[in-house]
């Protein structure tokens, strides 16, 4: 599903280039469920941005379903992302002026007849425990309910790969646990590959595979953590 090799990414800050990621090699098999943990600033979100083609690496190769993301133009990456990836974020990013149902519908294939879209949305809302919330605005939903809507929006086109960036980060413990199970159950029932980055150790423990990003990444310190002698690494080509 995903093959990464020789991947590096740095950001320019104050005229200096700060290395963020240096991942010699990493593979995720089709259907795998992986939780990636690691401290704030350790490059977890950056890694998801590279996998989804939102950002581009300085060096290295990323193959997504056998396709060389690192060789694609921005519009090719956009197309691949909309076809193959569902993205779930910490703060849901629902459009406040649209109902739950409309927030899902905008992610759906426009070539699908309207009636079929409606039926599919109802089925999905039922599946995530919100059968009577289709016409609610995001502001009329709890945070956990908003995340359920956002999960439907990410999954409704059946993407082979689901990425989630701190999906439980702004939820209370119990709701976080429900959302963790929902993401795992939904992606398992469709053989989807799921990569979640999270601070939430309870969520991470639910995953069959859990790793600390520092097991992949050779860069140890970042701009947010310049403490100590061994603080920020500099790169010579920066
Ligand atoms: P995490 O998700 O693990 O908290 P991030 O991937 O968001 O970490 O960030 C890793 C490091 O890269 C941080 O030090 C952050 O400040 C820096 N960083 C992230 N995005 C940018 C950017 N667009 N420009 C400059 N620095 C960035
Ligand atoms: Mg992050």
Which small molecules are bound? Answer: adenosine-5'-diphosphate, magnesium ion
Quaternary organization: single chain
What's the CATH H-level homologous superfamily of one domain?
P-loop containing nucleotide triphosphate hydrolases
Strand/helix succession:
EEEHEEHEHHHEHEHEH
Task: Work out the helicity level.
Answer: 25-40%
State the distance separating the first and last CA atoms. 33 Å
Strand content: 15-25%
Low-pLDDT residue spans: 225-238
In what order do the strands lie side by side in the largest sheet?
6-7-8-3-9
Per DSSP E runs of 2 or more residues, the count of β-strands stands at: 9
On the 0-100 scale, what is the average pLDDT?
A: 91
Structural class of the helix and strand makeup? alpha/beta
What is the name of the CATH class of one domain?
Answer: Alpha Beta
Task: Write down the overall geometry.
Answer: globular
* Biggest sheet overview: 5 strands, parallel
Please count the helical segments. 8
- Provide the gyration radius in Å: 19 Å
What fold name goes in the CATH topology slot of one domain?
Rossmann fold
Q: What is the CATH-assigned architecture of one domain?
A: 3-Layer(aba) Sandwich
């Amino acid at each position: 599903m995903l093959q990464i090799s020789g991947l590096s990414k740095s950001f320019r800050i104050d005229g200096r280039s700060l290395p963020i990621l240096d991942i010699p090699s990493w593979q995720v098999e089709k259907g795998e469920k992986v939780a990636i943990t690691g401290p704030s600033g350790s490059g977890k979100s950056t890694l998801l941005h590279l996998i989804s083609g939102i950002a581009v690496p300085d060096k290295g190769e990323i193959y997504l379903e056998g396709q060389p993301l690192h060789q694609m133009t921005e519009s090719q990456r956009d197309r691949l992302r909309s076809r193959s990836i569902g993205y779930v974020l910490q703060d849901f990013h629902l459009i406040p002026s649209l109902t739950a149902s409309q927030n899902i519908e905008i992610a759906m294939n426009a070539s699908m007849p309207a009636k079929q879209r409606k039926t599919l949305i109802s089925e999905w809302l039922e599946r995530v425990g919100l059968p009577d919330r289709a016409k609610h605005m995001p502001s009329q939903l709890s945070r956990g309910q908003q995340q359920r809507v956002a999960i439907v929006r990410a999954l409704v086109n059946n993407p082979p790969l689901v990425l989630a960036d701190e999906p439980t980060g702004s939820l209370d413990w119990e709701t976080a646990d429900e959302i963790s199970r929902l993401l795992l159950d939904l992606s398992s029932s469709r053989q989807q590959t799921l990569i979640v980055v999270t601070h939430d150790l309870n969520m991470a423990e639910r995953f069959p595979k859990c790793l600390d990003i520092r097991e992949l990444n050779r860069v140890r310190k970042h701009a947010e953590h310049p403490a100590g002698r061994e603080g920020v690494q500099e790169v010579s080509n920066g």
